[in-house]
Amino acid sequence: MKTQQTAEGVARPAGRPRSEKAEKAIVEATLDLLGDGIGVSELSIEAIAARAGVGKTTIYRRWTNKEDLVVDALASLKPPIPLSRGGSVRDDLVTYLRVIREESRHQRTRCIMNIAMTDTERHPRLAERFREIAIKPRREVVLAVLRRGIDSGELRADLDVEVAMGMLSGAIIWHVKWSDPDEEISEDLPERIVDEALKGFRPREA
Questions:
Q1: Surface-to-core class of residue 180, CB atoms within 10 Å of its CB (0-12 exposed, 13-18 middle, 19+ buried)
Q2: 203 in Cβ contact with 156 (< 8 Å)
Q3: SS3 call for 88
């Protein structure tokens, strides 16, 4: 069978191109069902096909299994972290935390991200692919910002960038996931977290 090379470098059978409309409908149907509270284990290709208005074969032509489809659907919810434009480390870190805060405001995003975080033991391959597609790129961006801060002298030369990244991410996730649901998350929360963290991240005065 003839194949053609995709932008991702994956060989695909030559012929009629994929329907972007169908793919979008399938991804949206998957997100809707997960957002309704259906777990990954209970989710079925049949239910996705029915919600998307397509046949099961249409799904299997694009994804070999349910886990691959779920990973792509979850990854589509992760907006890219804006790349650094060479501004201050503070501004870049605040931008990063703002993205996480915005995600927490959407019920479907919150529900699906909880599934991605809690179904890892039952679906280790899904968890691994999700880390590669959605988590690792963000991690690299934040680490690059912190390392740039060390190089520029904005941050301490001996700063443990792995721990610093965990402190920033953990603080915002704690507030959006574990704070009182009746308590409104303040608009300036990202700035407050970054400013507190930078008190320890910055070079010590002689």
A1: exposed
A2: yes
A3: coil
Domain spanning 77-201: which CATH class is it, in words? mainly alpha
pLDDT at position 101, please? 86
- Domains of the chain, residue spans: 16-65, 77-201
Apex 83 CA angle, 79 and 86, nearest 5: 155
**pLDDT tens, residue by residue, 88-104:** 999 999 989 988 888 77
Superfamily of domain 16-65: Homeodomain-like (1.10.10.60)
Q: What is the pLDDT of residues 112-157, one digit of tens each?
A: 666 666 666 777 877 787 788 778 888 998 999 999 999 999 999 9
